[in-house]
Amino acid sequence: MRNLDEHTITQAVLTRNASAPDPRLREIMTSLVQHLHAFARETKLTEAEWEKGIEFLTAVGQICTPTRQEFILLSDTLGLSTLVTAQNHKKPEGCTEATVFGPFHVLDAPRFDLGADISAGLPGVPWFVRGTVRDIDGNPVPNATLEVWQADDAGFYDVQKAGRAANSFEGRAILQADSEGRYHFKTIIPDCYPIPHDGPVGKMLEALERHPWRPAHLHFMIISPNHERLVTHVFREHGEYLDSDAVFGVRSSLIADWVAHDAGTDPYGQAIDTPWFSLDFDFVLNPIAR
Amino acid sequence: MRNLDEHTITQAVLTRNASAPDPRLREIMTSLVQHLHAFARETKLTEAEWEKGIEFLTAVGQICTPTRQEFILLSDTLGLSTLVTAQNHKKPEGCTEATVFGPFHVLDAPRFDLGADISAGLPGVPWFVRGTVRDIDGNPVPNATLEVWQADDAGFYDVQKAGRAANSFEGRAILQADSEGRYHFKTIIPDCYPIPHDGPVGKMLEALERHPWRPAHLHFMIISPNHERLVTHVFREHGEYLDSDAVFGVRSSLIADWVAHDAGTDPYGQAIDTPWFSLDFDFVLNPIAR
Asked: What domains are defined for chain B?
């Protein structure tokens, strides 16, 4: 393995990797090395461009923190996340579609009872969200766990806010649907927002003259035994950016009417002196094949 | 741009990027997105594997410091660096070949006069290095700048050593060849060494059952007006790992005899009471086409 040129190097690396004991790792590395090399050959990548690439990836890694995941943003904006989501969630007709996970989920969200206000005091227009978790035959799935997370009415997630205490959360919750599959909670209407664009991914979008905006949405992750985990959003009908989501995550079946109501009485029968919104959205889980 | 699947997503991303004003950026991003997506489709990458990939790249970025460049290591061990070097340095017969830059160059190496001891007191076997910088016709190139860097006799670079002061360097120098193209300096024999393998790239090599070793070598970067910058190594004949360099950098034309001498008199006519080595190596620079 001496005197390798831009053509012979590829086989040399594959040969070196051929002793990997895990066949799946070998398979992934083979495809990765072939495509990485083909990319560099095809573009006749220069040393200066290679260096810029190294600097870019380093900056992406360095800006990551426990609450900021710039590599997920990069994957999202390059369409890789949508691709991986799509090819791993082929479902029977009628199941709720999955979409990108995004970088704003946390592992230690607070638990709330059904009916709770999960906004933790965020200012904004009150929003009452409810629905039923069902199986493919339309029957309720009892007691599913729902994780919900969302931006505030200025388009920011709690984890993006400077000076926030590590255990202080806004607009996120873990809820348990009832025995008839029903879930319901109160929060505020989230706005559309730009993905964090003060870092290297933002610079990339700028160089590409792409906007960083995502249409308004509410994140759900729904977990129930015997069903495939569902990670999805519910988007706002007629909202901005539905056709140019910076991360390519919009699916028509996930767009719903966020219904406006006048002040008066909320869905819990309480007096409410401001206008409010409601969302009714049922989820259909995909059974795990036996 | 809604309802994208693992096939339609690729064109959607390319379309989004098509407004990039810089045609070269567009070209690079097009190839990158196509290969990234093809890799994920070909391997049917799962979400768990995608997540592992995100974690790996994040760890690679997070371990980088001003003196540790893990993304260059990754590029080196995946053969990308050798590919990029090779395709950017096609030279006329007779020119000294280039090889990988590596992650251990620093920008602020100390300047030394010809004949100096550049080891800064490193223990080891004395080594007297000399040669001439020439043009393609064999004529000396006067006054070229040579940057030299090397590992110590345990295989470590100065920048890898804990507790080192930022302005303290060992085994690195910037020298200027004389008006007849000659350079010469004293140092110590570097050993072969493992590339830093306590980080994510080391874990990758381990999973692939690949060793992290590089054959012993001395780095040179030679800069002279009207010539292409030369970044190369001089390897040790009969040294270990010449055929399994962890970063695929060995070229036969860069392997030289590191000649052993008994104690007695060194090349500068000074008494020397230990055995020592010498290296004679001429460099031939590639003229910049006019």
From this structure: 93-284 (2.60.130.10)
